[in-house]
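Below sits our specimen:

——
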Amino acid sequence: MKSLHGVLAINKPKHMTSFDVCHHIKRITKSKVGHTGTLDPDATGVLLVCVGGPTKYVPFLMGQSKVYESTLILGTHTHSLDTSGEVLETKEVNPQSSETWKELVQSMVGIHHLAVPQVSAIKVDGKRLYAQKDFDLSLLPIKEMRVYDTQLISCDETSVTTQMHVNTGSYIRTLNVELAQRSSNIGMTKDIIRIQNGPITLDQCQDLPQSIEDCQFLDAKMLFSTYPCIELDDITPILHGKIISFESNEPLLCVIKDDLPFAMLEKTDVGYKVKRGLWYEDISD
């Protein structure tokens, strides 16, 4: 079978890991694959899977912001910070009005420095955190989590559903614990849905394909539309790894050739240098 190249937008099913999805697609396509941001096994929604040559895109698509919808359940705290975990504490709910919840949700906009969940795929000392059962919780890594925008979807006496636009690497479970604390409550997360990854929204996703005929690759140029893009008449300096001068202050520029991402350029003190070549086929044609 001829190798395939492209990026799939998959609506990740519940109870599958992101690795499981990649393994399934790799088995179908017989190609190298990589995803652009882990989703919890219980989470659903947008998972971008790069197949073949576009696995070179992974670090740049992974770096794009993401939007999640989730529900915070008040009054219960678990070791995993979601409904799948072991219950550690229960507490009578301190109810808040809808107006108060609007204010509290809006207060989450900004930068937070918070510990990652005990049950997460981040590596500590070379091992996935979720696999370290006796890990000292006082040593949980602290991450910068940036919330760009929030929206209160609904609320009642025991739950709050929100939408959060966050930077890559943010943990919605952790942010929801912070939101619960701001309301003088404890809480856990239920029903995380990633509704957007960079420019790709949930309605652009397909269900996990059961056959190769189902694979619908995305427009690669559109995937990089969150970066400033340029087109060059002469790509020789890029192929030779030379410094290129542009009147720009952008930290990264995406070079487009024949409507495909060709290279990512990184700003330096003397100009732009090639950070990563993105081409994956013979460009001599």
In short: Residues 66-197 form a domain with the Pseudouridine synthase fold (CATH 3.30.2350.10).
